[in-house]
């Protein structure tokens, strides 16, 4: 960290451009703690590409005390799913990444934490998903990395069961709607028939009055 200014100076001397900055091709420290300075990582788990956890430490600008925080990424898994998984299992972030580092396969619900997702079925019906499961594993044995485990199959079956249940509820609701439409249609047709009979009777009465007036008054 102390040598970064020296590196930036040498870089500018050689390439005639600034090294430090937020633009493309520039270097910047993405460790951030709200209200802190001199933020650095004191412990890290580097598991794979875009899969890491950094334990951060910084100095509070107001109080001067040390504060800690986390900077984590897990490719394909949103942060809210990571936090929700830790909450449900009673793990800390450090324990989660330690398990991943040791090659354990861990399952995440991508919709956990309050996100919503919709699926459109072949018949055009739409329903809300409650689960979208994804497993993450960083096994060292690449030959066994893509083998589907028993738990993988159970997770997929559970998601399929959710789809079947949602489809069943959809069909029940559609039957209720059809019954309501049929009932409303019958009500309309009955009222229409009564109204038409009333109009016919009124026309006959009007015709009868016209004929009577013709006889009386010529």
Can you give a write-up of this model?
- The protein has helices spanning 4-15, 79-89, 93-101, 150-217; strands spanning 36-48, 51-60, 66-74, 106-109, 117-120, 126-129, 133-136.
- The chain has 218 residues and is of the alpha+beta class.
- A hairpin with a 5-residue loop joins strand 5 and strand 6.
- The chain is elongated, with a radius of gyration of 35 Å.
Task: Annotate the secondary structure layout.
Layout: H1 4-15, E1 36-48, E2 51-60, E3 66-74, H2 79-89, H3 93-101, E4 106-109, E5 117-120, E6 126-129, E7 133-136, H4 150-217
What is shown here, in short?
It is built from four helices and seven strands; from the N terminus they run H-E-E-E-H-H-E-E-E-E-H.
Q: What Rg, in angstroms, do the CA atoms define? A: 35 Å
Percentage of β-strand residues = 15-25%
Widest sheet: strand ordering: 1-2-3
Give the % helix. Answer: 40-55%
| Shape annotation | elongated
**Poorly predicted segments:** 143-147
User: Count of DSSP E strands?
Assistant: 7
The ordered H/E elements are: HEEEHHEEEEH
Number of helices: 4
Largest sheet: 3 strands, antiparallel
Q: What structural class do the secondary elements suggest?
A: alpha+beta
Averaged pLDDT, please? 79
Distance between the termini: 117 Å
